[in-house]
Amino acid sequence: MSIRFFRATLAAVIAFAALTLAQPAHAQQNQDLASQKPVAIVAGAYGDAQIKTGDSDWRKSYALDLVPPTTQFKTGNDGRFVIIYLYDDHRELLAPNSTGTTDFRGLINTTGKASREPSKSGGMEFSVPYITKLKLNQPQFANANSPGEMQRELDFMSSYVDVTRYPPVFHWRNAKMNPYSIQLFNESKQFIYGKRVSQPLYTFPTRAPFQLIKTGTYYWQVLGPQNQIIVAQYAFRLLTLPLVKYVAQQERVFDAVQAKQKGDTVSATELFLVFNHYKTLDKGIHLLQEWAKLEPTNPNVFRNLCRGYILKGCPLMAQQALQKEIQLGGNDPVGP
Q1: Among residues 201, 209, 159, which one has the least CA distance to residue 180?
Q2: Distance (Å, rounded) from C-alpha 280 to C-alpha 236?
Q3: CA-CA distance, 261 to 46, in Å (whole number)?
Q4: How many CB atoms lie within 10 A of CB 210?
Q5: Nearest 5°: CA angle at 79, between 78 and 82?
Q6: pTM of the model
Q7: How far is Cα of residue 202 from the mean position of the Cα atoms in its chain?
Q8: 149-208 pLDDT, tens per residue?
Q9: pLDDT digits (tens, 9 = 90+) for 83-137
Q10: What kind and span of H or E run contains 11?
């Protein structure tokens, strides 16, 4: 075999291998992009507003749709999108008869009319809503059909932590039991504090053996005298005074917008991001419950309600929310 022939053959083999490997690598790259964590969230999807993620088909979009990179948008004659980017809270607007694709920083490859609005919160970066990350599995719904479950869950839902005060104040339904036992756990769910009390309310003492750390995440639960669960264990996060003021300000903004335009999903999405970012589960569930009344055909609202109820220890309410989501066209499989 001549050296010239050998070199030509080797070059052909390398070229063929490069061509063969390029297509799977490109496909893998697209798959990796599509599977990356969301960079934005749909805050408003009006009229003929459709979305396409990865290799899926086009579908109708709703507020609270999470948006990974390379997601495609298109609007019809009456369609319109408002998209909030998580890294700086700015808004991307897509007008009727327009298209666009999400990049990590905004919309690209747009046709028609697209525009950009600055952040309403001064450029704050939001985390991907933690409530959306919860994967469903069958054990989470195990007690949904237990006798008296709905009343038990209504009792659970009446409990809440007032994290706008420091030390925090814990509230729960008066089950007319004595004593109650309130218990606190750290972020790893290790027991750190317990107290027996006679009333369905407890203010953490300012001179406790240790102090709860502001911005720290904790869990709490309440038991009755026979170890009955009065409040199922769930997480809360303590806020600093500046964060308390910020959350209150965002709630006022939301209330002002809703007073002018009841059912506005953009302001609701903004508040949803705030509540999730600071892990104020009680406030988040209440927002979603009110949202479900104003936008009863949005499957994403019930998807998040389902997960909120699970985190609060309410499998029957979670099951009902999941059923409603599926009825509205949601695809939300439950694992083993």
Answers
A1: 201
A2: 6
A3: 14
A4: 7
A5: 140
A6: 0.86
A7: 29
A8: 999 999 999 999 998 888 999 999 998 999 999 999 999 999 999 999 999 999 999 888
A9: 999 999 999 999 999 999 999 999 999 999 999 999 988 899 999 999 999 999 9
A10: helix 3-35
